[in-house]
Amino acid sequence: xxxxxxxxxxxxxxxxxxxxxxxxxxxxxxxxxxxxxxxxxxxxxxxxxxxxxxxxxxxxxxxxxxxxxxxxxxxxxxxxxxxxxxxxxxxxxxxxxxxxxxxxxxxxxxxxxxxxxxxxxxxxxxxxxxxxxxxxxxxxxxxxxxxxxxxxxxxxxxxxxxxxxxxxxxxxxxxxxxxxxxxxxxxxxxxxxxxxxxxxxxxxxxxxxxxxxxxxxxxxxxxxxxxxxxxxxxxxxxxxxxxxxxxxxxxxxxxxxxxxxxxxxxxxxxxxxxxxxxxxxxxxxxxxxxxxxxxxxxxxxxxxxxxxxx
Amino acid sequence: xxxxxxxxxxxxxxxxxxxxxxxxxxxxxxxxxxxxxxxxxxxxxxxxxxxxxxxxxxxxxxxxxxxxxxxxxxxxxxxxxxxxxxxxxxxxxxxxxxxxxxxxxxxxxxxxxxxxxxxxxxxxxxxxxxxxxxxxxxxxxxxxxxxxxxxxxxxxxxxxxxxxxxxxxxxxxxxxxxxxxxxxxxxxxxxxxxxxxxxxxxxxxxxxxxxxxxxxxxxxxxxxxxxxxxxxxxxxxxxxxxxxxxxxxxxxxxxxxxxxxxxxxxxxxxxxxxxxxxxxxxxxxxxxxxxxxxxxxxxxxxxxxxxxxxxxxxxxxx
Amino acid sequence: xxxxxxxxxxxxxxxxxxxxxxxxxxxxxxxxxxxxxxxxxxxxxxxxxxxxxxxxxxxxxxxxxxxxxxxxxxxxxxxxxxxxxxxxxxxxxxxxxxxxxxxxxxxxxxxxxxxxxxxxxxxxxxxxxxxxxxxxxxxxxxxxxxxxxxxxxxxxxxxxxxxxxxxxxxxxxxxxxxxxxxxxxxxxxxxxxxxxxxxxxxxxxxxxxxxxxxxxxxxxxxxxxxxxxxxxxxxxxxxxxxxxxxxxxxxxxxxxxxxxxxxxxxxxxxxxxxxxxxxxxxxxxxxxxxxxxxxxxxxxxxxx
Lengths: 310, 318, 304
Hints:
- The complex is a heterotrimer of chains A (310), B (318) and C (304).
- With 310 residues, chain A is α+β, with helices and mostly antiparallel strands.
- Chain A is 38% helix and 25% strand.
- With 304 residues, chain C is of the alpha/beta class.
- Chain C contains 13 helices and 8 strands.
- In chain C, helix 10 links the parallel strand 7 (205-212) and strand 8 (252-257).
- Chain C is globular, with a radius of gyration of 19 Å.
- Chains in contact: A-B, A-C, B-C.
- At the A-B interface, strand 2, strand 4, strand 5, helix 2 and helix 4 of A face helix 5 of B.
C-alpha cells in the first residue's frame, strides 16, 4: 500500500569528527554483523538494520481505527564523521487474516506492518504526514532511540562544537506517477511525500535520509548565522561565532551522494525548487565573505600597528 | 559527447553473505546429558532403538518429495559439555557410535553443546540474543523501548507490577499475564534466557537448544561467514572436550550438516524445553538476506520451504 | 550543562530565583531550558506567565514522560507563548527560552525505578545536545526526585552538571541547607551511595542565599539605631553560623536581595519592571545577572 518512515538528524556529540574506525565501533549495534562503510564522495558508515515489533493503531486522517501488526526496520548512520541519523521505516500491507497471527509470521516479513480491515493508502499517508496522535505508530520515537544509542557511545567525548536541535523528517512513499513534495512545518519537523515508479526498494529510504541530512545542514547553517548576528556585533566576535560552521559543516554538502541513479531526478527537482543548493551556496558565500572581511580587517589593523611602531 | 556509464564500487560498503550447503533434513538422534551417561549404555541403546524407525520413515517421506533424486538426510548427536561436563571424548564417543550401530544408525555429525554458547571466539549465543525481536503486546507503538525483564523472554504481557508510582496516587491492581496471540484464553510462557553469578553468564538449556536449531537450519552468519564448519574426525578421539572440534564429521560420506528442515527425536520429558525453544525461535529475526538465499536455493531444487522458521522444525516425542 | 536547583525547605524562593536565572542566561545569548521537576507542585508555568500551564500541563508533562506515558515531554517556547507582553518578543541576541512543564495534578514520586532513571538519562542527554544550559527544579528537601537525578547523572559522566542549594538567611535555613548537603541521606551521602565521587560532587554544589536583607540596605533607612544595631548583630551571628556549617562565603555562589516583587508575586523580573514601571529593584536584576554568569563561570566553581 505505502511505506512510511521517519529520519532524525543531528550533530554527533563529539568535539571533532570521528575517524572511520571509531564510526565502525560506534555503529556496531548487532553482534556478528559488519558496519558498512563507504568513503566516496563522503565518509558514510551505517549500522546493520534492526527490527522493532509493533502492534498499534496507524494514523489515519479520517480518524478511522486502523490496527497494524509487524516490524519496523531501523538503523543509525554517521556521515562525514560528524552528522548522526536515526532512520526507521515500515512497509504497510493489507493482512490476509482478520486477526493477529503468531509472531513468527511477522518476523518472516521483516519491515512489514500488516493492517486489518479497510484502510486506504491515501488516508494513512495524510494521517502520518499530519501530526499523528500519541497512541499511533511512533516511528519518531524509534528513530530517536537509534540516534541516542550513537550519541551515548562511550567513544564520544560529548563536547560538541555547538548546540543544535535534531531535525525530524517524516516521509511516505507510494507507487505511481513520479512526484515529490517537501513541507516545512515547525522548526524541527519536515514532511516528505514521494510517488515513485515500480516497487519500493530501500533506495527510496536512502533518498529520504539524504534529503533529511541536507535539510538539517541547511537549517544548522542558518541557525549559526543567526546566532552570529553579523552586523549586530563587532566583526571579530561575529566571525568567531561563524567559525564552527567553517570547521564542521561547510564541507559536508554532497547532494545525492548515495542516491540511486533512478531516483536522482527527485533530488534534482527539489534542487530546482526550492533550490537547496542555491540557498546553501549563498549562505556559504556569506560565511566565507564575513570571515574574509574580518581577516582583512585584522591584517590591516596589524599593519597599522606595525607602521605606528616604526 | 555521449554519456558514459560509470560504475563505482567499494568493498566495505557491500554486504556479502556466505552460503551454506544444505541437506533436506537434519535429524537429531539424541541429546546426551550426564544423567543419561550415568544410567549406563543400555539407556543409550534403548534410545537408539526407539529412534531408528522414525529415521527410516523420515528418509522415505523425503524420498517421496524429491522423486528421481537422492534425499539428503544427515544425522547428528549433541553432547552436553556445558552444564555438567562428564567423561571424555575418547571414552564416550566410541560407546555412542557402537550403541547407534546396533540399531543400524549412522551418526554423521557429533556436536558439543558448549559450542552453541561460544566457539572459535564467536559467541553464537550473544549473536542470537542480539537478534531477538520481542513479540509486541497490543498497543505497542514504538514510543517506548520494548519492555524487557533482563534475561527473560515471554510470549505476551507480564502482570503489571503492583505499587504506586506517585505520592498520593492510585495503586495498581494485580492483573493476569496475557499471551499476545491468544485464541480465547492465554498460554503465557516466560523463558529464562540466562542467569549470572559472579559476573559469569550461564545460558539456559532452551536458549542453547534454540541456537542449536538455528545452526542446523543454516541460518546463522557471523560477519557474513558461516560460524561453524564441521571438521572431519581424526583417527583417535581426544582426552578432553575442549580439544574436540565444535562439530565433528564422523561419516565422510555424510550429506551437509545444515538442512532445510530439522527433526528431533526426543523423550517426552523434553516437551517443556522445546516449548521454550519455540517461544525463543518465534522471536528470532533471521537476516533477510540469509532467508532469501535459503529460499532461492531450495526453490531451485523444487523444495518449497515453510516461511516461518518454527515451521521448519519438527519433533517426535517418544 | 545541567543545573539542579534544590532547597532545604519550601518557601525559599527557589523556583522564582532559578527561573529568573535562566531568563537572564537566555538574555545573555544562550539557548536555555527549564525543567519543572517539582512534581508535587509544578508552578513554573505561572512564573513564566504561561497561564495555560500555570499549574502544570494536562498532557505531555514531565511527570507523564518519566512514568513512560508519553514519548516526549511537551515544550513551551516562552518567547512566543508567554502571556506577558514584555516577554513575547525575543530581544535581539537572546537565545531560546524553553519551558518543560510538569504534569497538572501530578504528585511527588513515590519511588524511583530503573525505567524512570533511563528515561531521565535520555531526557538530559537529548536536551544537552541542543541547549547550552538546562535548569532542573528538583523541589525541596530529600526526595525521590533528587535521588533520581543523582542516579541519572552518574550515567552521564561526560555531561557537566552543578547543584544550587537555595536557602534563606535565617538560623533554621542555614542549618537545614547544610544538613541537606552533608547530613545523613543528604546529597553527598546519597550521591556517594549511587556512584558519585563525594569530593567531586562537593565541588559541584554551591549555595544561593535568597531574600537577603543587608543591614545597609536602602529599605532600612527609616529604622531606629537600636533596630539597625540588632540587625547587624544578627547578621554577624548568621555569618558565623554559616561559616561553621560550611555554607559561608566560599561555598556561596550568590545572594538575592529581598524584593517585594519576588515575595508577593512570583514572576520574571524584566528590565522594564526595573526601568519603566520601577516595581522591582535594580539590585535584584543585577544579582540575577551575576548568578546567570557565575553558574557557567568555572573560576567561581574551583575546588574549595
